[in-house]
Amino acid sequence: MLGNYSSATEFYLLGFPGSEELHHILFATFFFFYLVTLMGNTVIIVIVCVDKRLQSPMYFFLGHLSVLENLVTTVTVPVMLWGLLLPGMQRISLTACIAQLFLYLALGTTEFSLLGAMAVDRYVAVCNPLRYNIIMSSRTCYFVVIVSWVFGFLFQVWPVYATFQFTFCKSNVVNNFFCDRGQLLKLACDDTLFTEFILFLMAVFVLFGSLIPTIVSYTYIISTILKIPSASGRKKAFSTCASHFTCVVIGYGSCLFLYVKPKQTQAADYNRVVSLMVAVVTPFLNPFIFTLRNDKVIEALRDGVKHCCQLFRN
């Protein structure tokens, strides 16, 4: 507990409750998830860059999404893994806490912007295929990606600044495995109600600002697919969108529960579970979602493995 008029210059991450044996089990589990996430997304990035069959807007966006997934999980998971190995609570400096929260939120905002752009890309591909190459030109794709990255990082400057303007004098123990904004606000001695409401509105803007184009795009996509007379044609059209749609459901579902709520400072156990979904489970699942349900990616992976085997034999 800190003095009444002093603010924390460092924090202690409480992490996960439980015995040392449980922590070792969690470490092994999350370390496995982290390695698979890094390898899976890196493989996607490499094949998108080198395979000519994947030189299209959809895979261009997918490559950037994989970069974001690797960065999001790297911002939080190594700190969490180190905390599971250490006895007691993990210390993190104020500067590191600010940097972690900013990167976590900025990368997440960029990811949602990109998911919205990918939905529009699928709409153009299914509903307006003859003009697809004109509308989704290289210049358009680069512009969309650059805007997504710049918007994501600029948009989160004020929320993070506002969070750390409060005086953290109640305690410096954060009841999570990373610098979670909701748990940080619990430590503030000031009245955070107005700031929490503004943060809620900003979260609504980010999530629904990218979710609405996604919903509208998929409404038109489904309507167009249902008009296709042959079952094989409908299946082929839907297969081009299935991976993105699955990713949208998982990603938006997790973040709606975590950030779109008027009161940011809710139960720590709830925040911890949903944060795990966002930072660990979703990045782990996405490489499987985008590879196992995509024939072009599977074919590119198969050819890549064959090429590597031939190189080793020679």
TrEMBL record:
Gene3D superfamilies per UniProt: Rhodopsin 7-helix transmembrane proteins
Keyword Repressor: no
Locations listed in the record: Cell membrane
UniProt KW keywords: Cell membrane, G-protein coupled receptor, Membrane, Olfaction, Receptor, Sensory transduction, Transducer, Transmembrane, Transmembrane helix
Domain G-protein coupled receptors family 1 profile residues, every copy: 40-290
One MF annotation (Gene Ontology) recorded for this entry: G protein-coupled receptor activity
Membrane topology qualifier: Multi-pass membrane protein
Alphabetical list of CDD domains matching this protein: 7tmA_OR6C-like (cd15912)
Amino-acid biosynthesis in keyword set: no
GO CC annotation terms, alphabetical: plasma membrane
Transmembrane stretches, start-end: 25-50, 62-86, 92-120, 141-161, 197-221, 242-260, 272-292
Family annotation (Pfam families): 7tm_4
Family matches, as InterPro entries: GPCR_Rhodpsn, GPCR_Rhodpsn_7TM, Olfact_rcpt, Olfact_rcpt_6C-like
PANTHER family per record: OLFACTORY RECEPTOR, OLFACTORY RECEPTOR 6C76
Family stated for the protein in its record: Belongs to the G-protein coupled receptor 1 family.
Stated name of the protein: Olfactory receptor
Species assigned in the record: Tupaia chinensis (Chinese tree shrew)
